[in-house]
Design a protein that fits this description.
The complex is a heterodimer of chains A (189) and B (435). Chain A has 189 residues and is of the alpha+beta class. Chain A folds into 2 domains: 6-63, NADH-quinone oxidoreductase subunit E (Arc Repressor Mutant, subunit A, Orthogonal Bundle), CATH 1.10.10.1590; 77-157, Glutaredoxin (3-Layer(aba) Sandwich), CATH 3.40.30.10. Chain A has 7 helices and 4 strands, in the order ααααβααβββα. Chain A has helices at 6-16, 26-37, 42-52, 56-63, 85-88, 92-103, 145-157; strands at residues 77-82, 116-121, 133-135, 138-140. A 4-stranded mixed beta sheet of chain A has the order 2-1-3-4, with helices on one face. In chain A, a hairpin with a 2-residue loop joins β3 and β4 (138-140). In chain A, α1 (6-16) runs antiparallel to α2. Chain B is of the alpha/beta class. Chain B is 41% helix and 12% strand. Chain B has a 4-stranded parallel beta sheet with strand order 3-2-1-4, sandwiched between helices. The longest helix of chain B is centred in the C-terminal third of the chain and has 26 residues, at 402-427. Classes of the chains: A alpha+beta (189), B alpha/beta (435). At the A-B interface, α2, α4 and α5 of A face α6, α7, β3, β7 and β10 of B.
């Protein structure tokens, strides 16, 4: 009995079909599992392993290499606060300190109600809006203490539900077609 | 000098809806690809060679030469590197979110020229909105017959897949990116073979090109390689998208003609960076992403030119310029950059894995006022073990260039600001008051 629901199992099959080798779908499938559960459960890892033809250990070993893939539960909203160079120069550590104080948790921790997790991020490629923050990989910035608190309020009240889906949901646009070219463009060189 | 060269890759950015298919088609979208399909593959490649288009990812390798190295084979791949993660770099992010069709069109032109079997656009996972817009653009391109079977009535067929990354700086290194695309940890591959053109995705010949590089192709095909080469100077042709950040009044992206514009123009011109924040003095700047050695005020009049910056001992790299002002603590800045490399090291090679961690810890204790008199020598010694001789470009002791990039910030900041390092150690605190 698979852990991924039937809709996601169908999605998984379509994703795998896009690649010449099944294992290439491993990371897209990890994102898919996170969109269902918010993080990568052991059961989902088992499913992914079976789907792409590797061992669960290989899925786990691959997933843990990547910052976006979580093998432990995280909050509904994950704050990724960048403190790399451009943000550092514009008050990122002060913002990070404020965020921890405001939410009452340290970096890497989740609030008791399961709403918020704080992560310290490496450069998120939005340095013109430093200090920048992502919430579930949606961009906000530049932020200061006051605007951070307002953001927390907006998330708590659900005012940003259209902009920020719950953690794990990455692209809400699905591919509309499978592979259709079915040809090889060989060129004599 | 700021020239009046018209923008190429950012020419649609004035439109709110620049990412939509309708706006793209209204502004000449897919005309470059349609024209390419009427040309021979060799002629398309020839135009790119004439343009002397240098790769815009960071290494600055000529795109045309990369293509010509592709080994003849029945199956070959085109992989677009959109895993933009070099700190302070945010140009590909802009292109993905604001003009995804342009990337797809460029990739299609490239795939046609090299005869690829399939295209993968590897997009940084953190770009959630970008991934949605890229996927939307991909779906639309299939619908209008720009991707798929017998494209626009020609004999050319190809599929394109948008592939999300999952957060790892090292996957910007092209062989690590391929490993990741194969569903593995992003470990850079041992060289030789040096180029994926010889052995790439699934062992097949593969061209890996950056998103900005691809975004230039529609324009080059429509206007000719010579028109592109007429911009810029020497080997730095065309325009380039620069990302300006740090202690500057107008941080942002600026597409500028290469070579002719100087760092001083970029940072101080009222239409560009508009000077240092709060009227402070410029202390130092990073000319091309955090892998690049820092420059001081003395280098402000250098042109935004790959060769000129290289000769001066740094690199234009990813085109990201970071401004530090007189209030910036250079130890803290160097420490944060070093911590980044230390965290992002994949761990395969000892000099990078161990050296990066040591350097980070030494810098941290200096910044925290626990530094020792011997620490500067120790820093330089560890740097020298990672990149022997501390030459530019650095000597390689590791599989990829991540490790040898670590000394860049440390060695250049010690060279320029030795007194500030000493002050930290002597006073037992950060003299800039950043704590």
């Amino acid at each position: 009995m698979a852990h991924l629901n039937s809709e996601n199992l169908e999605r998984a099959t379509r994703l795998i079909a896009l690649y010449p080798k099944d294992r290439s779908a491993l990371i897209p499938l990890c994102h898919l599992a996170q969109s269902q559960d918010g993080f990568l459960t052991e059961e989902a890892i088992q499913d992914i392993a079976e789907l792409v033809g590797v061992t669960p250990a290989e899925v786990y070993g691959t997933a843990t290499f990547y910052d976006m893939l979580h093998t432990e539960p995280v909050g509904k909203y994950v704050f990724a606060i960048c403190t790399n160079i451009a943000c550092l120069l514009n008050g990122a550590f002060e913002l990070l300190e404020h965020a921890q104080h405001r939410l009452g948790v340290h970096v890497g921790q989740t609030t008791k109600d399961g709403m918020f997790t704080i992560e310290e991020a490496e450069c998120l490629a939005a340095c013109d809006t430093a200090p920048c923050v992502q919430v579930n990989h949606r961009f906000f910035g530049p932020l200061a203490a006051e605007s951070f608190d307002a953001l927390v309020g907006d998330l708590e009240s659900g005012r940003l539900d259209d902009v920020v889906p719950s953690h794990g949901v990455l692209s809400r646009v699905e591919r509309s077609v499978g592979l259709v070219a079915d040809t090889e463009n060989e060129v004599a060189r | 000098m700021i020239t009046n060269a018209a923008p190429i890759v950012t020419r649609r950015m004035g439109y709110e809806d620049s990412h939509t298919l309708s706006r793209y088609l209204e502004t000449g979208g897919y005309d470059g690809f349609k024209k390419a399909l009427t040309m021979s593959r060799e002629d398309v490649a020839d135009q790119v060679n004439r343009a002397s288009l240098l790769g815009r990812g960071g290494a600055g390798f000529p795109a045309g030469r990369k293509w010509s190295m592709l080994r003849s084979a029945t199956t070959s791949y085109l992989v677009i590197n959109g895993d933009e993660s070099e700190p302070a770099t945010f140009k590909d992010h802009l292109l993905v979110e604001r003009d995804p069709h342009q990337i797809i069109e460029g990739a299609l032109i490239c795939a046609y020229a090299i005869g690829a079997s399939q295209i993968f656009i590897f997009c940084r996972g953190e770009f959630a909105l970008g991934l949605e817009r890229l996927q939307q653009a991909c779906n639309e391109a299939y619908e209008i017959g720009a991707i798929g079977r017998s494209i626009f009535g020609s004999s050319f067929s190809i599929d394109l897949v948008i592939h999300p990354g999952a957060g790892a700086y090292i996957c910007g290194e092209e062989t690590a990116l391929l490993e990741s695309l194969e569903g593995k940890r992003g470990f850079p591959r041992i060289k030789p073979p040096f180029f994926p053109a010889v052995q790439g995705l699934y062992g097949a010949p593969t061209v890996v090109n950056n998103i900005e590089t691809m975004s230039n192709l529609p324009w080059i095909v429509l206007n000719g390689g010579d028109a592109f080469a007429a911009l810029g100077e020497g080997s730095s042709t065309g325009t380039r998208l620069f990302a300006l950040s740090g202690r500057v009044n107008r941080p942002g992206w600026y597409e500028l003609e290469m070579s002719k514009t100087t760092f001083r123009d970029l940072i101080f011109d009222p239409t560009l960076g508009a000077g240092v924040k709060e009227g402070r003095a410029l202390k130092a700047f990073i000319p091309g992403g955090v892998s690049a050695p820092w420059f001081g005020p003395g280098e402000l009049d250098l042109g935004l030119d790959q060769d000129a910056v290289g000769k001066a001992g740094s690199m234009l790299g990813s085109g990201s310029v970071v401004v530090m002002d007189e209030s910036t603590c250079v130890v803290r800045a160097a420490w944060r950059i070093t911590r980044f490399f230390s965290r992002e090291s994949c761990g395969q090679c000892t000099p990078c894995r161990e050296g990066g961690g040591w350097l980070e810890q030494i810098l941290r204790r200096i910044e925290e006022g626990e530094g020792r008199e011997t620490d500067l020598d120790l820093l330089m010694d560890v740097c020298d073990n990672i990149a022997p001789g501390l030459t530019w470009p650095p000597q390689q002791t590791t599989i990829c260039v991540l490790g040898p990039s670590i000394p860049s910030s440390i060695a250049s900041s010690i060279r320029m600001f030795r007194d500030e390092y000493h002050a930290h150690i002597r006073e037992g605190r950060c003299p800039m008051g950043s704590h």
